[in-house]
Design goal:
This protein is of the alpha+beta class. The protein is built from six helices and nine strands, in the order E-E-E-E-H-E-E-E-E-H-E-H-H-H-H. The chain has a five-stranded antiparallel β-sheet with strand order 1-2-3-4-5. Strands 6-7-9-8 form a four-stranded mixed β-sheet. The protein is elongated and about 65 Å long.
Length: 202
Amino acid sequence: MSRNMGGGRYQSSGERSELADRVVRVNRVAKVVKGGRKFSFSALIVVGDMNGRVGAGIGKAREVTEAIRKGMEVAKRNMITIPMVGTTIPHEVRLKWGAARIMLKPAAPGTGVISGGAMRAVIETAGIKDILTKSHGTNNPINTVRATLAALQQLRTAQQVAELRGKEVDQIVGRRLANAYKRTEITAANGIADTASAQETK
């Protein structure tokens, strides 16, 4: 018997307070033994700093809260860094992971997160604000989360590709797109500075 808890949240404290976490799924497992049944729980947790870092983990325990805590610890150890351009991703990526087939596509500012289920948990905790996604095949949240993280790991910015090839950015994407990238980076930097100054004022 499983209980789907997409969208549920577990409020962390202490050293985890700077991370956003989301309980994607809690599954109850019953083991039949001599004298009755033994119940245990597994929890799929996604953790992110809302600024380009995200990870996922599965915790198993006799109690739900302990399973969530273990899942958070695993997720924190497996966090990855995602390259971003402003509030979206650098380019489109398609990935097949087992029975899961997913697509991530950049979106214009103001579009929002067009996603659902387990993918949305990963996207939002990573701090991506504008993106289009699609998931085909399996609806297993564990495989969907793993596929989403694998797709995000494949992302590369134009600057990273240019450095790998030993060229300038405008030689890779053209002068017009290179200028657009620079304007986006400046706008994002100004937005971060404005947010930081507002927090200091409070």
